[in-house]
């Protein structure tokens, strides 16, 4: 089945924090290696607990925790230390993960030129209890200050989870908290897809978070509860006895697949269809699952995706590890998938044995795992599985447990497809059908050996060094990357901050070497984020222009168009269509004027243009105080030259361009220096100029640097948050 680009949704960005994994990449490594991230409590953690709790024979001393939950880069997001300490770690880490998901998708988190929606669910705000004991939240309501109540509400209420992110990142699409217990995250994905397909948003973020405070407490086993007596979770196993509650969060960035292809986005996988429903009242109790609703939601998702049940190769189940709940889930899935599958032909898996039940984040963790499997074309193992339970072992069961890592082979040439299942207390069920990403459209190949500009910025000097180191390490791990894609992603998919560094290079090895060199001329702490830059650009004098003209005309469209404008005007002035004369003064004028237009094509507006000699004519044309025909007529007639040295442009802010002038003013940015042009070429010199203008704080129109067409957005290291401890002890 060919994919319908207009009805499918692309997963273009991923981020998350999980037990034993502080990133999506680390999660993949752990799952591929079959790592169990449910760990025993340390001696120090045990000593922090009540002695009678630890001594209880029913006490189970395990945790599945997210490391560093008490840390947060408050300054980066504009929070005071008091505000950060009063904020639930769920809300804080979710904000960081949304930023990372947008960067992973190659979109500037602070500068999306499209409506962006946010949908997510959040676990119970248990951090508020810590505030109650330390900050007096439990005093009589009439004695609390309104500002104090608002501080705790905004920082801890689940209603603020999404809207706070939208406020901090200036996201203008719908911002909706989704609370359906364990199906919150996958329900959020469903709503995000609906928002995209209804053209309410052009980029949507969806996810969930559940972090308990404190995390490392263990728990008391209760025979009538759902938690495991031994700290292990065995999904669909004959020895399933309960689950383990874990901690974690995840976010996915989504776009319409047609738009993702048109925009050059990296696509992990495609969402073909989703569905959400409720079990209603046909079950044993409010907290009990029902089979009928779960079967219906799977059938509805398949219908919405336009996919037959037999075309699904793998199912990522909730797999709670509680025998009765696992049996209901398997029975519901079999009702839909068994008629189309031979016995034991469809692999099934679950995350719970690796990291426990992430509650409100469980659905997004399952979706991320499945998207990564499709992306890497690898089936991951489900650990802690020894013997299938009775329903899974039945002769007519369509499912078999995937217990080893294996290549995901296509069946009869059909695309790889998977289903993700989720449900929660209260009966809300969610189901999604995924497919491997289709091949992206072809694009022109870049010129061999063409230079590329890699800009890196951060809020602090320490973060800048960390960002450069991360990028360098990534390129060392991935020498196969197309540097055009790296440059495009860094140029258009990152927020520009005050501390900046850039390199111009022709290949990955050269980029690695340049990033490892601390070049003060390519580093700045003066550029204000979002502020207009300041600087003086000096164009070369007459003697240095001859070698530039031919090369720049061939590689820079703005230069070529400006040169053609001059020549067309000269022909009109001469009254014939023959090629104009190329005397030295005419050639100098054309080069100066075209170089000025090359600078403005980078998005940099001149506020003042000065010149000497022939440069005065080019300066007047660039400033708009002299017409092209008047300037060329003056050249043809051999004078008289304008007497003004300065030609003011109309813009109050921008760069000062010195045309053919020698200047000793501090901060002058030399453009197209003869030595650099001879050594590296005019195109390299153009990129060097763009980098120095960006370093000075100017906003660059990066499209002007890509005559071969822009690169694709690709996953690159995200911002290195400089987190500090913000916690109520």
Automatic annotation (TrEMBL):
Pfam families found in the cross-reference section: CurL-like_PKS_C, ketoacyl-synt, Ketoacyl-synt_C
GO function terms (MF aspect): fatty acid synthase activity
UniProt keywords, alphabetically: Phosphopantetheine, Phosphoprotein, Transferase
One Gene Ontology term from the biological process aspect of the record: fatty acid biosynthetic process
Keyword Phosphoprotein among UniProt keywords: yes
Transmembrane feature ranges: none
InterPro entries the UniProt entry points to: Acyl_Trfase/lysoPLipase (IPR016035), Ketoacyl_synth_C (IPR014031), Ketoacyl_synth_N (IPR014030), PKS_Beta-ketoAc_synthase_dom (IPR020841), PKS_NRPS_Biosynth_Enz (IPR050091), Thiolase-like (IPR016039)
Superkingdom of the source species: Bacteria
Repeat found in the keyword field: no
Annotated ranges, domain Ketosynthase family 3 (KS3): 6-436
Similarity comment text for this entry: Belongs to the thiolase-like superfamily. Beta-ketoacyl-ACP synthases family.
UniProt name for this protein: Ketosynthase family 3 (KS3) domain-containing protein
């Amino acid at each position: 089945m060919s994919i319908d680009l207009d009805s499918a949704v692309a997963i273009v960005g991923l981020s998350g924090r999980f037990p034993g994994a502080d990133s999506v990449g680390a999660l993949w490594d752990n799952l591929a290696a079959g790592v169990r991230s449910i760990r025993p409590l340390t001696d120090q953690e045990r000593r922090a607990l009540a002695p009678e709790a630890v001594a209880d024979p029913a006490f189970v001393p395990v945790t599945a925790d997210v490391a560093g939950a008490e840390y947060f880069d408050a300054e980066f997001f504009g929070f005071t230390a008091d505000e950060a300490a009063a904020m639930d770690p769920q809300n804080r880490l979710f904000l960081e993960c949304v930023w990372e998901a947008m960067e992973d998708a190659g979109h500037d988190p602070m500068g999306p030129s499209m409506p962006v929606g946010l949908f997510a669910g959040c676990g119970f705000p248990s951090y508020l209890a810590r505030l109650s004991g330390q900050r007096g939240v439990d005093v009589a309501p009439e004695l609390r200050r309104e500002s104090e109540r608002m501080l705790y509400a905004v920082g801890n209420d689940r209603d603020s989870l999404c809207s706070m992110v939208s406020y901090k990142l200036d996201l203008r699409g719908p911002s909706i908290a989704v609370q359906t217990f364990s199906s919150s995250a996958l329900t959020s994905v469903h709503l995000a897809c609906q928002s995209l397909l209804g053209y309410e948003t052009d980029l949507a973020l969806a996810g969930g978070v559940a972090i308990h405070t404190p995390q490392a407490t263990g728990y008391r086993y209760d025979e009538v509860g759902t938690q495991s007596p031994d700290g292990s979770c065995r999904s669909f196993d004959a020895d399933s006895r309960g689950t383990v509650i874990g901690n974690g969060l995840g976010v996915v960035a989504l776009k319409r697949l047609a738009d993702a292809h048109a925009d050059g986005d990296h696509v992990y996988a495609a969402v073909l269809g989703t569905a959400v429903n409720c079990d209603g009242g046909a079950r044993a109790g409010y907290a009990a699952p029902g089979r009928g609703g779960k079967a219906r939601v799977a059938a509805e998702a398949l219908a919405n995706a336009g996919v037959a049940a037999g075309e699904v190769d793998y199912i990522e189940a909730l797999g709670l590890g509680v025998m009765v709940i696992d049996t209901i889930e398997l029975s519901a899935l079999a009702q839909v998938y068994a008629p189309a599958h031979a016995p034991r032909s469809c692999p099934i898996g679950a995350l719970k044995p690796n990291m426990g039940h992430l509650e409100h984040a469980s659905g997004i963790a399952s979706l991320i795992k499945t998207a990564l499997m499709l992306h890497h074309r690898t089936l991951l193992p489900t650990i802690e599985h020894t013997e299938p339970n009775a329903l899974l072992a039945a002769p007519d069961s369509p499912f078999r447990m995937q217990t080893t890592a294996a290549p995901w082979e296509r069946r009869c040439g059909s695309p790889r497809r998977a289903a993700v299942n989720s449900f929660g207390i209260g009966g809300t069920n969610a189901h999604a059908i995924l497919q491997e990403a289709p091949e992206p459209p072809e694009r022109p190949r870049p010129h061999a050996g063409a230079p590329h500009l890699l800009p890196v910025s951060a809020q602090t000097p320490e973060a800048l060094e960390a960002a450069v180191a991360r990028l360098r390490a990534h390129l060392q791990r991935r020498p196969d990357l197309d540097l055009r894609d790296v440059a495009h992603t860094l140029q258009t998919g990152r927020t520009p901050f005050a501390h900046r560094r850039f390199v111009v290079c022709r290949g990955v090895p050269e980029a690695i070497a340049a990033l490892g060199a601390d070049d003060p001329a390519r580093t700045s702490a003066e550029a204000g984020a979002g502020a207009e830059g300041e600087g003086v650009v000096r164009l070369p004098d007459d003697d240095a222009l001859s070698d530039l003209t031919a090369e720049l005309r061939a590689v820079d469209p703005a230069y070529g168009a400006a040169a053609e404008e001059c020549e067309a005007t000269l022909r009109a002035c001469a009254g014939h269509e023959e090629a104009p004369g190329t005397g030295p003064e005419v050639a100098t004028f054309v080069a100066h004027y075209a170089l000025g237009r090359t600078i403005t094509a980078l998005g940099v507006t001149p506020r003042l243009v000065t010149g000497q000699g022939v440069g005065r004519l080019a300066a007047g044309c660039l400033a708009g105080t002299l017409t092209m025909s008047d300037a060329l007529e003056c050249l043809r007639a051999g004078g008289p030259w304008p007497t003004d040295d300065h030609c003011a442009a109309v813009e109050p802010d921008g760069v000062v361009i010195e045309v053919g002038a020698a200047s000793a003013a501090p901060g002058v940015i030399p453009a197209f220096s003869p030595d650099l042009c001879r050594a590296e070429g005019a195109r390299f010199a153009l990129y060097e100029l763009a980098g120095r203008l960006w370093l000075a704080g100017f906003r660059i129109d990066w499209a002007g640097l890509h005559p071969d067409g822009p690169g694709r957005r690709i996953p690159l290291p995200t911002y290195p948050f400089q987190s500090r401890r913000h916690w109520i002890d």
